[in-house]
Amino acid sequence: MAYTISDVFKTYEHNLRLIAGENGLARLVREVGILDYELLPEVKSRFQRVNFYEGQLVLSTFLYAKDNPFLITEAIKYLVSKGSSGLVIKNVFHLQIPDGAIRYANARSFPVFVTTGDGFLFDEVITRVDHARQDAELLENVQRHIDRLLLDREDRDEVVRDAHTLNPSLKNEHRAIYVLFCKDEGAQPSDTAHRFEVLQQRLNTTELAAYTNLFAPYDDGVLLVVSGERMIGDGGRSMGDKVANLLRADVLENEASTAVGVGDAHFELYELADAITEAVSAARFALHQGGGLMRFGDLGVYRMLLPHLQSSALQAFSRQTLEPIRVYDAETGSHLLDTLRAYCDAGQSLAGTSELIGQHENTVRRRLERIAVVTGLSYRSADQMEQLSLARKVELCQEVMG
Q: Percent helix, strand, coil in the chain (nearest 5)?
């Protein structure tokens, strides 16, 4: 997970003003450096090596440019040539930033900021940005290890090695619980790191902080793997609910904008990839239903469909079954497919469908009869309705899993 100029700007938004290079806010930040006197013409000519690098955010008061602000333009050109990420000017000397410097920075999408108060202390900024960058890299590293574990699921030994890379103390008995947060389009990597840090601190005060457990950020949420007999017991539902409810109450503090998925209990560590997949799938179904808790064991036939979503045969079956309805709706402006979806979601109840879509039962019935004409599959036939229902379930799985 990259740490960028945008993250720095968001952290110090009350102390910084962007004056140029808005299109470069996605530039990566690998470290922070201070420009003091190194680019003075008489000094620069004496040294071949100057300590400015690619991916470096540079801070400066430009004391050396106090009598010649045009040296700022030359400094920006030099930093751009070195691949620096951006420049922050602590303008304590009230220098007039040359128009040429701003034009050049804009042309090269090189972000330039000036401070707007006294709250931007160089030493504090260097330390804070470095910690935030390390946190972002840690999150990215954990994400990469979990992704690799899921890819290695067919190689049992590799899954166990990946699992022990994440936590060497994980036991064979385990269960995964995944918390999915509602997506915030404006979220930055630093927000994710901060939220996980807060959750980690809360978790450390609970019994979930056992050394045999794993708590890690993953995708748009956080993953908890509890392991060992004490956490799993006989693998029954009650223990899974107990752990999930403890997580929701004491760590998430009953945050409403979360969906929690609880996977089944597993008794061999090489099944960890399956355990994580179960928890993620259950959480996505919970989110689709508006949040709350969903157990993988309660997903019914979806448990069978989920592992095969990429199957070309399954996709072709769903597409070929539902496509005639889509075409008919597109040509006539009708709502047959929406009605079929509601009928399936309402347990094939005419009254339930009527309530879901706000139409009279007779309207629902007429639409279902029209679907029979369009597809050759009648809702009155159990076998034919099963085909329509299965096609809808495959479609829903694809929607839920993205």
A: 55, 15, 30
Query: Mind listing the pLDDT tens digit for each residue in 131-142?
Result: 766 666 666 778
- pLDDT tens sequence across 113-154: 999 877 788 888 888 777 766 666 666 778 888 998 999 889
Q: What is the pTM of this model?
A: 0.67
**Cα–Cα distance between 390 and 370 in angstroms, integer?**
19
Tokens read off for 327 = 């075409």
- Asked whether 49 and 23 are in contact (CB, 8 A), the reply is no
Tens-place pLDDT, residues 80-109? 999 999 999 998 888 899 999 999 999 999
134 falls within a domain: no
Helix, strand or coil, per DSSP, at residue 348: coil
How many structural domains are present in the chain?
3
The values of phi and psi at residue 266, to 5°, are -130, 155
Residue 135 lies inside a defined structural domain of this protein: no
- How far is residue 198's CA from residue 35's CA, in Å, rounded to a whole number? 35
Amino acid at position 253, single letter? E
231 and 267 both lie in a single domain: yes
What's the CA gap between 177 and 65, in Å, rounded? Answer: 57
Amino acid letter for position 227: S
Whether residue 192 lies inside any domain: the answer is yes
For residues 226 and 293, membership in a common domain is answered with yes
Q: What is the CATH number of the domain that holds 38?
A: 3.40.1390.20
Tell me, what CATH number does 377's domain have?
1.10.10.2840
Note the pLDDT of residue 265. Answer: 95
Question: Whole domain around residue 206: which residue ranges?
Answer: 141-299
